[in-house]
Structures are given as structure tokens and as C-alpha cells.
Automatic annotation (TrEMBL):
Residues 5-112 form the HIT domain. It holds the Pfam family DcpS_C. A motif (Histidine triad motif) lies at residues 97-101. This is Histidine triad nucleotide-binding protein.
Length: 114
């Protein structure tokens, strides 16, 4: 999706504070951090929301979850972290390219949108 902001970041057309990249994923710091550690992991493949993910995306989603603790640990969330995927309007999703929030670096409140 050429006009999708996270596709543009994944292509390198827009700058980001990148912390990790491989063939399938990019991870970068959230521009408006809600915690001392606030990183977004995105698949390079454009999937608009978790609700749009299909059975063929299951291995990709699994690898994205597997990646999260590694990135959290390496970027200052050694004592634990929270993962969030906001989905759709009621979920508070603002960017319609699937992304996994990683939040940590301090104890988090019991509920936090992101
Ligand atoms: P959502 O509400 O869709 O789950 O979260 C979108 C997140 O993307 C927000 O936390 C917002 O701060 C972040 N964000 C939006 N635009 C940009 C951007 O251009 N660069 C970075 N690094 N983060 C962004
Ligand atoms: Zn996209």
C-alpha cells in the first residue's frame, strides 16, 4: 500500500528510529512514547488490522510474537513488558497497518490503551 504510513516506514521512504529489521519485520520507537520503552513491531507485509489477518498469516503472527520478548529485553524492558494490538475503531486503532506495541521500562498501570 503505497500511501500507508507504516508501509512507507518499512520501505525507508519515511524515517523512523529503527531498533530491529529482518526480511519480514521492522521494529521502531513509537513517535509518542507512552512508557520509557515503547516500540512498535510491524510486518513488512501490509495487513490492515488483526481482524484482516488470514490463516496464511498465522506463521507470520507467531514469529512476530516470538520476536517481541527479544526486542523488549534488548531495549530496556528486562523486567517485563506489555504487548498491545489495537484493532479497529472501538479498539482505538489509529494506523491501519498491523502493529504490535511493546511497552515497558517501568511498572505499568493495570489498564493502558497504549
Ligand atoms: P494505534 O493506535 O494504531 O495502535 O497506534 C499507532 C501508534 O503509532 C501510536 O502510538 C502513534 O504514536 C504511532 N505513530 C503514528 N505515526 C507514527 C510515525 O510516523 N512514526 C512513529 N515512529 N510512530 C508513529
Ligand atoms: Zn501498510
Amino acid at each position: 500500500m503505497s500511501d500507508c504510513i507504516f508501509c512507507r516506514i518499512a520501505r525507508g521512504d519515511l524515517p523512523s528510529n529503527k531498533v530491529y529489521e529482518d526480511e519480514e519485520f521492522l521494529a521502531f520507537k513509537d513517535i509518542h512514547p507512552q512508557a520509557p520503552v515503547h516500540i512498535l513491531i510491524i510486518p513488512k507485509k501490509h495487513i490492515s488490522t488483526l481482524a484482516e489477518a488470514s490463516a496464511e498469516d498465522v506463521p507470520l503472527l507467531g514469529r512476530m510474537l516470538e520476536l517481541a520478548p527479544r526486542i523488549a529485553r534488548e531495549h530496556g524492558a528486562e523486567e517485563g513488558f506489555r504487548t498491545i494490538i489495537n484493532t479497529g475503531r472501538h479498539g482505538g486503532q489509529e494506523v491501519y497497518h498491523l502493529h504490535l506495541h511493546i511497552l515497558g521500562g517501568q511498572p505499568l498501570p493495570a489498564m493502558l490503551k497504549h
